[in-house]
Design a protein that fits this description.
The chain folds into 2 domains: 2-168 and 334-366, Medium-chain alcohol dehydrogenases, catalytic domain (Quinone Oxidoreductase, Chain A, domain 1), CATH 3.90.180.10; 173-311, Rossmann fold (3-Layer(aba) Sandwich), CATH 3.40.50.720. Helix content is 26%, strand content 25%. The chain is built from 11 helices and 19 strands. Strands 3, 5, 6, 10, 11, 18 and 19 form a 7-stranded mixed β-sheet that branches. A 6-stranded mixed β-sheet has the order 8-7-2-1-4-9, with no helix packed on it. It has a 6-stranded parallel β-sheet with strand order 14-13-12-15-16-17, sandwiched between helices. The longest helix has 13 residues, at 317-329. The model has no long low-confidence stretch (mean pLDDT 97). The chain binds nicotinamide-adenine-dinucleotide and zinc ion (2 copies). The site of nicotinamide-adenine-dinucleotide has 29 residues, from helix 1, helix 4, helix 5 and strand 13. Residues 40, 42, 62-63, 169-170 line the site of one zinc ion.
């Protein structure tokens, strides 16, 4: 079928919205009609050419929510009409990592997905004879996409799909970092560095976990106000004195849990140093620039501080994303404030411009 999609033709150039061909789903694959898609930093990072593992031409986009249109012959996990969130982090349920409760890094389709191919090593996207690759295995800057069934989370059909799209990446990453990776305990103190989509999700996750004190650190007063709306009890303007300010707020000890959601290695170091001696756990979610290193004084670790990294919040997507959407539907999460701009697919490059200018938390494409 012919669909409209935003194609990364050349690194560092605007995406080109155009007609492309999408083939029918294979036996284990699903055709999804996208209804909404968020515009995320990872899309912009890849489009810029800064990502060394990027590839082109490819259809970008990975924060998708939509409706199952058709399924391949062997699909059992979803059926036409189901509402789904796309997962760049799939869950096969069978591989060594899926069987362990310790990680969400499913191994089933990793190698092909990292190169922009579906699991059989080919693409369903074409332009004439030329294959177009499936960015992150999702390619959701498009009216329709074909994805493996293990990479779709089936959600409550009552959930508005614009908000649901945010659970495909940033929001779930922050929520999961607090709830899954760090497993924040009731009554504890948490500090979140960064109040973008991921950091605000971590603030909300810490609140859901029952943290008593939640400090959010950011450079923008506007974003700190959003953090208070998500449950931050204290806010702090970031900078070189942030660690000392947090020590002063916590009787000189530091926080039980710290979260880094900026992508800045200096802030990562602050997040380590602001964690409490004895048991403080620092969870890193930010993606650092190519070749950048995190500096940690080993004594900080000997004194009992720990560091964890978190990809997609440690969430097992097919199980955990629908459960988070249910908590939203139950009124435990307030997602609306994150949607700052509604744009059309043709305006996708404007979505990048808005993100670059830090104008709003998320632009969401309406298909
Ligand atoms: N681990 C994952 O699976 C995953 C998933 C999605 C995004 N990410 C990464 O998470 C990071 C955050 O993503 P986002 O969408 O929330 O980004 P964002 O740019 O919207 O938010 C980052 C925030 O950090 C703040 N900040 C910058 N310097 C600071 C400082 N010195 N002190 C305190 N705050 C500071 C900015 O003001 C901004 O509000 C990015 O690096 C992104 O690539 C990781
Ligand atoms: Zn993302
Ligand atoms: Zn798996």
């Amino acid at each position: 079928m012919e669909i409209r999609a935003a194609v990364l033709e050349e690194f560092g150039k605007p995406l080109v919205v155009q007609a492309v061909q999408l083939a029918e789903p294979g036996p284990q694959e699903v055709l999804v009609r996208l209804v909404h898609c968020g515009v995320c930093h990872t899309d912009m990072y890849t489009a810029s050419g800064a990502d060394p593992s990027g590839y082109a031409p490819a259809v970008l986009g990975h924060e998708g929510a939509g409706v199952v249109e058709r399924v391949g012959a062997d699909v059992t996990l979803v059926k036409p009409g189901d509402h789904v969130v796309t997962l760049f982090s799939p869950q096969c349920g069978e591989c060594v990592h899926c069987r362990s409760p310790k990680t969400n890094l499913c191994m089933a389709i990793r190698e092909q997905q990292n190169q922009g191919y579906l699991p059989d090593g080919t693409t369903r996207l074409h332009r004439g004879d030329e294959p177009l690759r499936h960015f992150m295995g999702t390619s959701t800057f498009a009216e329709y996409t074909v994805m493996p069934q293990i990479a779709l989370a089936k959600i409550d059909p009552e959930a508005p799909l614009a908000g649901a799209a945010l659970f495909a990446c940033g929001l779930s990453t922050g929520l999961g970092a607090a709830l899954r990776t760090a497993k924040v305990e009731e009554g504890s103190t948490a500090v979140v560095f960064g109040a973008g989509m991921v950091g605000l999700g971590a603030v909300a996750g810490a609140r859901l976990a029952g943290a008593e004190r939640i400090v959010c650190v950011d450079l923008s007063e506007e974003r700190l106000a959003l953090a208070r709306g998500q449950g931050a009890t204290d806010t702090l303007v970031g900078g070189p004195d942030a660690v000392q300010a947090i020590l002063d707020m916590t009787g000189g000890f530091g926080a039980d849990y710290t979260f880094e959601a900026t992508g800045n290695v200096n802030v990562m170091r602050q997040a380590v140093e602001a964690a409490r001696m004895g048991w403080g756990l620092c969870t890193i979610t930010g993606v650092a620039g190519k070749g950048e290193l995190l500096e940690v004084i080993p004594r900080y670790l000997i004194q009992g501080r720990r560091i964890a990294g978190s990809s997609f919040g440690g969430l097992k997507g097919r199980d955990d994303v629908p459960a988070l959407v249910d908590r939203w539907m139950a009124g435990e999460l307030d997602v609306e404030p994150f949607i700052s701009h509604r744009i059309s697919l043709d305006e996708v490059n404007r979505g990048f411009d808005l993100m670059h200018a830090q104008d709003g938390i998320r632009s969401v494409i309406d298909f």
